[in-house]
Specification:
This is DNA polymerase delta small subunit. Keywords: DNA replication, DNA-directed DNA polymerase, Nucleotidyltransferase, Nucleus, Transferase. The chain is of the alpha/beta class. It is built from 8 helices and 17 strands. It folds into 2 domains: 279 residues, Purple Acid Phosphatase, chain A, domain 2; 117 residues, Beta Barrel (OB fold (Dihydrolipoamide Acetyltransferase, E2P)).
């Protein structure tokens, strides 16, 4: 009987394909490049796409550049949006004698009722008017096609907007698949004052099958992959101020990594895992963040199941495509635009076909000269974002039959919540780990 139960609890396997090559910085070097080049690359790629969509949208209208606009003549223009924001922080304000004393409307958001949009292409720029294009929805860096006409005041009155829309998706039969689960967790923040080692150990024991009854262990055996979505450690800013560290401070600096490595070693011995860098992790600040150095993980990195990945991260499991970030792109959108929930921001980035439209304007990124790695050319089946306030999910359906599971993964250190996705049907649910004893 013991042999039979052992056979039943063999962990399921899945085929893995990394698609991070686009986000890897290899031959590129900093040589004083200007960020204008990444905007040119973005506009060139997106304009080609939008031009191909215009005939099915409004074939009777001519397409022209900003320089070719004529007052009262209806046409279509394609370009990059720039949002003029009254409250947008500016480093020059620190040195300005006439520094604004106007208080921020919200401490986390820089929107103002006087904000307005401008469209720019290689020939020039024009201020946009009308109610079709809301400044609260759009951000600097989005490429769109606009139907309208120039007014006597020299502005462009927008009558309709064409976005790129969801990219094409490779059709994958889901119904014939078996139950296999992927677990997402973010914001472990090991080393912070609020971290709970027991909570982390419960998570590890659960997904490795060392916790629970036969049913829970049977479920654990169907977990084929773990993705750790950024902000795994948190180091005190006092230890990172550039001063020489005393020996006891050096110990405090390495302690979170040792604790993380112990946890990851237990997981890597049982199932494959991907770890992505986040804003608090020891990785480059600018996107795309490069993989965390394997020397930080002397125990877990010895397993071939351990993978240190980029942020953003793209991969396939059993031909199901996953795309995700550690949250910086969405967090930046919340500062410069508004939506009813975080899932709306995720949906917008897919419809704009761009993971991080605010980069490089307000979000740090590498100054690429000949490409924009954040363009989304193929629609993922699962699009996830880590380090959010709460767990949210939605199934997004595209006009051409695309199905995308959107997931906001909460910070585990604060919520004790991990997210589980069933690859068979793209359904997902939250797993909550608590250490409080109920009375």
């Amino acid at each position: 009987m013991e042999v039979d139960s052992q056979e039943q609890l063999q962990r399921k396997q899945s085929t893995y394909l990394s698609l991070d090559e686009n986000f890897e910085i290899q031959k590129e070097v900093y040589r004083g490049q200007q960020y204008s080049q990444i905007y040119f690359a973005r506009l060139h790629m997106m304009r080609t796409l939008l031009y191909s969509l215009v005939p099915n949208w409004k074939s009777h209208l001519p397409v022209c550049t900003v320089l070719e606009l004529e007052e009262g003549k209806e046409c279509i223009i394609v370009g990059t949006l720039y949002k003029h924001m009254k409250l947008k922080p500016c480093i020059l304000d620190e040195y300005s004698k006439e520094r604004s004393v106007a208080p921020l409307i919200k401490p986390h958001n820089f929107m103002h009722q006087d904000d307005y949009l401008v469209l720019e292409d290689e020939s020039g720029r024009v201020k946009l008017g009308g109610t079709k294009l809301s400044p609260s929805v759009y951000v600097t860096g989005v490429v769109v096609a606009l139907h309208g006409k120039e007014t006597s005041a020299g502005a462009f009155f927008v009558e309709d907007v064409l976005e790129a829309g969801l990219p094409p998706q490779i059709e994958r039969p889901l119904k014939s698949r078996e139950d296999k689960y992927v677990v997402f967790v973010s914001g472990l923040s090991i080393g912070s004052s609020s971290s709970n080692p027991l909570q982390f150990q419960l998570l590890v024991d659960h997904i490795t099958g060392h916790l629970g009854d036969e049913e829970e262990q049977g479920f654990a055996a169907e977990i084929v992959h773990l993705v750790i979505v950024g902000n795994s450690v948190e180091i005190s800013h006092g230890l990172l101020n550039g001063q020489n560290l005393a020996s006891k401070d050096q110990s405090r600096l390495s302690e979170p990594f040792k604790e993380l490595d112990i946890l990851l070693t237990q997981i890597a011995a049982s199932l494959p895992l991907d770890i992505m860098p986040g804003s608090s992790d020891p990785a480059n600040f600018a996107l795309p963040q490069q993989p965390l150095n394997r020397c930080l993980f002397p125990g877990s990195a010895t397993y071939n199941t351990f993978r240190s990945c980029t942020n953003p991260h793209c991969f396939e499991l059993d031909s199901i495509r996953f795309l995700g970030t550690s949250g910086q792109n969405i967090d930046d959108l919340t500062k410069y635009s508004e939506a009813k929930d975080k899932l709306d921001f995720l949906e917008r980035t897919l419809r704009w076909r761009h993971l991080a439209p605010t980069a490089p304007n307000t979000l740090g990124c590498y100054p690429f000269t000949d490409r924009d790695p954040f363009l989304i050319d193929s629609c993922p089946d699962v699009y996830f974002v880590g380090n959010q306030e709460k767990y949210e999910t939605r199934l997004l359906k595209g006009l051409e039959g695309q199905l995308v599971r959107l997931i906001c993964i909460p910070r585990f250190c604060e919520t004790g919540v991990a997210v589980v996705l069933n690859m068979r049907n793209l359904e997902c649910h939250a797993l909550t780990f608590g250490t409080q004893i109920s009375s």
